[in-house]
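Second attempt. The first submission of Alpha-1-antitrypsin had a stray character pasted in from the spreadsheet, which I only caught after the job came back as garbage. Lesson logged: always re-copy from the clean sequence file. Corrected sequence (427 aa) follows.
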Amino acid sequence: MIIKRRSAVVLVGLLAATVTTGPAPALAAAEPVAEPPKVELVLDVSGSMAARDIDGRSRISVAQQAFNEVVDALPEGTELGIRVLGATYKGKDKEQGCRDTQQIVPVGPVDRVQAKAAVADLRPTGFTPVGLALREAAEDLGTGTTARRIVLITDGEDTCAPPDPCEVARELAAQGTKLVVDTLGLAPDEKVRRQLLCIAGATGGTYTAAQSADELTGRIKQLVDRAKDTHTAAPTVIAGRSACDDAPLLAPGVYTDRETFSEHRWYRVPVRPGQELRASVSIALDRPVNRDYGVLLRATATDGRELVRGVDAGSGRTDVVSAGLRWSASEEPGDGATPTPEATTAVPATTVCLVVSNALAPRSGTQTTPGMPVELTVDVVASSPAPAAPDLGRGWVLLLLLTVAGLLTGLVAGLLTRWWVATWREN
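This time the job returned cleanly.
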């Protein structure tokens, strides 16, 4: 299994706003670091979790092992909570069973021993009230200025609707609480997959089918790490266009969009002389795709000339494909001097077109809408000076070096020749 982390997914260095003529760039959310990252793991402990079909082990035992490893590897400063559903009621009264959800570890700094002990006692028991558990998990995480993340692990669809879990996800997204729900499916069931895709899609999260213990553990760790990286700046939602002319104008920040299979989406970024554009993109593969894949990020001029590109491709299993690029504005004084701040401000910015393309194909039966989650990071910084080469190629310095090298080469060649001749005569 190849788990690729998106590289350079979080460049949140929001420097001075770029001043342009015409419409102002879209501003990504810029918020102070006021809270630690908060994540709640929501685990299905319904009766079906007793099935022994993951590496010859029960689904619940695989989930418990994954939770233990995630707790051990929890990033410093991350606050974690654990909620379960279908874990206590053993009867057949559906009304009572569909209220069966509890928070067994409160959201906060984690006592690793306590968290592991709480998870170790779980036994597959009851119904599957996913919708209710999601609503309660959102309350567990509370509100605030930073993004929160729920990671839902289940092997079955909700058996208790209403509330329908997809409608709950839409309800949570509509509240504007910056809540992202990522879903992990433990059973190869089409109904479950569609429901989990809907939950993730409504909140800007991702869906992953985990069919082994390693896949489950690796994906949960990845999602918890992502919460650490993105909680202080929830990506701004934008919509790329099919051409550069009317594409959204972006300031430095982190943005989110959706892209369908084999699509091209365009954006614009103003870059002034003496500045460098740095951009990266990650596409989360939240549904089954063919094994040959690729993502391309290009920077072009407004007339279509390509300035630079970044690409990533592969043929193994992956959850995220990422690419990045850097480009410096070339409008500089003819004498090679670095432009002054006053001169830089006076010169109009160059509009750089960014286009995100993917070479991804859905597997048979895979839903193609909505598009796959795209995270685009844009930064504009002062240009990095190119490293100067050693000044050895000018005038007498080069001549002296060549002369010394020639003398040493001749001396070594002469000594070797005399030794070889003397040895040949003796023989």
